[in-house]
Amino acid sequence: MNLVYADRDGNLFDHPEYTGLGRSGELVTEMMEDELIPLPEGATLVSLPDTRPIGVHKRTGEMQVVPGDFTAVGALLPQSFTRLLLPGYVKADKSKMLPLFGYTAVVWKDGGFYVAAEACDDPERWNPRNCDPDELELGVKRILGEYKDNRLFQHLSNCALGYECLTASNTFLNRWEGAVPVSFSCNAGCFGCISEQPEDSGFPAPQTRMNFKPTTEEVVQVMLEHLKTPESIISFGQGCEGEPSTQAKTIIEAIREVRSRTDLGYININTNAGLTDHIRGIVDAGLDLMRVSTISALDDHYNAYYKPRGYTLRNVEKSLRYAADKGVVTSINYLIFPGVTDREEEIEAMIEFARRTDLKLIQLRNLNIDPESYLSLIPAARGERYGMKQMLDIFREELPDVVLGSYTHIPDELAERRKKQLQRG
């Protein structure tokens, strides 16, 4: 397991004299064979600016910083892959923060790159190579030509072509899960928000948040353009917007209008679910799926990261319970971090949270964050650290009816229900 590192020009090398290491939280650790898989297709190797790589010298057995003007390297994994360890590194300048990405440990082994990760879902649907650039450009051109005055389509065209967002791209390709952002405001101040950061945060947001309020008609046009097949999904709540339920009136009106014109496809919302009254209205309007973003089922950890404004984790739980009771398929967008999510108290709290809310799916998402900043923000560990692989095994054993995955799935029960609905006309 040779250490992988980069020079100042970004060229990658493996070091035959050093064994690569990973990190679990602040703890530097060796990587086990059963934690490694070949670098997945669609993954990206990146240098970590202002860091130095750490390895174990194979001759002396000592852990040390690799000498020379080099930086550590990490992998950015595509959806469907859950990281098990962070890269092994120390910061050369502790005042500098890493860009907001989810860095995974990588080594050179058996003539190829390997990463500390586990495949938790089928990667094919969200593999970037399945988004043909030429086909996407044609789709964008066609829809922008057909909906010349729709600002939402114009906004999404930049998300698709500029940021290469696959959900936005799907909107123009009429396939799978498509995006319909609606909100420029938020009721949380997430520490790792990817669309809006305070000027003094130390790390810039990698995306630009939408800056207008779409009309109901604009939202309806996007929804109807996408909901043309029985398996299509249209989703409120994207990385380029704030909290969608702050625009509950627009969402409710749009859902009702769309459902008066078609029963095809599924309507989803990605939300923090803090505005319980708003969520109830959206559910009652005809919502099919709800994915709630969370980083923890513990109040102190949740509050430290999300900085909720006018709501609590209890409101989130009430929203999930109400939706589940109304037949909505509920899931969580679980932001995970090696060395934190696998703490004993975190695992126990999340298992009980999932049981109380009748979750159907846990979507595992690698948290995009500067590790040192995050670790200094949240409460210290109170119990044992199990490791990510064991954590996943515990979830599978304790929550046998909850799917562990990476993206939205349509359960057979819901698909059959919708099929009968369509047959009735």
Automatic annotation (TrEMBL):
Task: Specify the domain of life of the species encoding this protein.
Answer: Bacteria
State the Pfam families in the record: Radical_SAM (PF04055)
Question: What keywords does the record list, in alphabetical order?
Answer: 4Fe-4S, Iron, Iron-sulfur, Metal-binding, S-adenosyl-L-methionine
Entry keyword Nucleotide-binding: no
Q: Which residues form the Radical SAM core domain?
A: 172-411
* Record PROSITE patterns: RADICAL_SAM (PS51918)
Cofactor(s) recorded for this entry are: [4Fe-4S] cluster
- What is this protein's record name? Radical SAM protein
Q: Which organism is it from?
A: Paenibacillus oleatilyticus
Q: What is the lineage of its organism?
A: Bacteria, Bacillati, Bacillota, Bacilli, Bacillales
